[in-house]
Design a protein that fits this description.
The protein is of the alpha+beta class and about 300 residues long. About 45% of the residues lie in helices and about 10% in strands. The chain starts with a helix and ends with a helix.
């Protein structure tokens, strides 16, 4: 009953957040947390003199375990501990930069619950309760063999395409489903349509159908789903947004600039649909998952 467990977990998180969101930022054992932050920062600073920053953060987190709630603590208590840990790491410049570089995480924007933070006028309006679509951290894989050095071979399971500024403008009011099906047929990949539709009709948490939307200058595209120095990138659950318009899908996953401003002349909206072959390439986008990736 994985879906039921997911539902209960989310309800517990929402009950905690709605009942006392302000308490998330209050450190319940201030001295222990302060000592932990000091030790992590000191290790990173010392390590950075002789090793890469990525190694230093992971090594510091392995060496210094953060104050943990009781083994039988509630979901809410464990989530609060994750929030405490994330906020204290965000106060360490080197750690903050590593989270941004490796995972594209900005602590103020990332909810850390496994659900996308919808676009809103301000960060304070991006609420936990409004986040409804599943969000994943996926390995930064080669979706297309676009560059012989960076991506000599495409990873199986990807279908990728890009929209020009004019195409994006014309597609904004169309459903995501309509757009990707038309593109698949135009690319001679009509075989993908029944395969993806069958997976969406009978969702399997172990093998979700994932979607990533990202806009940038076309000259920087080498076939990867993220920047070459990124370790993981964000993907959304395609099933959650497929029936929505492209504009709604962008807004629900937090892409404010695209919704408001559209594309510049040299930019493209890159669209990746990914059917993972196994669970080794993706994980739920939660703070717990991030810490697990960093420490292991």
């Amino acid at each position: 009953m994985p879906e039921m467990r997911n539902l209960l977990t989310r309800l517990a998180l929402l009950a905690f957040v709605l009942g006392g969101l302000g308490a998330c930022s209050t450190l319940t054992v201030k001295d222990d947390w302060a000592r932990w932050q000091f030790a992590v920062k000191a290790d990173i600073t010392h390590c950075a003199k002789k090793a890469p920053a990525s190694h230093c953060l992971s090594a510091a987190l392995k060496a210094h375990k953060s104050p943990a709630p009781d083994p039988d603590a509630s979901v809410a208590a464990r989530f609060q501990a994750d929030i405490n840990k994330a906020r204290l790491l965000d106060q360490i410049p080197a750690a903050r930069e590593e989270l941004r570089k490796r995972f594209g995480i900005y602590a103020d924007d990332f909810l850390g619950t496994g659900f996308s933070a919808p676009n809103a006028a301000s960060i304070s309006e991006r609420s936990y309760a409004a986040a409804w679509n599943r969000e994943y951290l996926v390995k930064n894989l080669c979706a297309e063999a676009a560059d012989p050095k960076a991506c000599p071979q495409a990873t199986p399971g990807f279908f990728a395409f890009a929209l020009t500024p004019d195409e994006f403008q014309a597609a904004r009011a169309r459903s995501v489903e309509e757009i990707w099906i038309a593109r698949a047929k135009a690319a001679g990949r009509a075989d993908l349509v029944p395969e993806i539709q069958a997976k969406l009709a009978a969702p399997d948490p172990a093998k979700p159908v994932l979607l990533r939307l990202s806009a940038f200058d076309k000259k920087y595209y080498v076939g990867l789903t993220g920047r070459p120095d990124s370790e993981r990138v964000f993907f959304a659950d395609l099933g959650g947004v497929e029936k929505r318009t492209l504009s709604d899908a962008l807004a629900s996953t937090g892409s404010a600039a695209l919704v408001q401003n559209g594309l510049k002349p040299d930019e493209r909206l890159f669209v990746w649909i990914y059917l993972p072959g196994d669970q080794s390439t993706f994980t739920i986008a939660s703070w717990a998952s991030v810490f697990d990736l960093l420490e292991h």
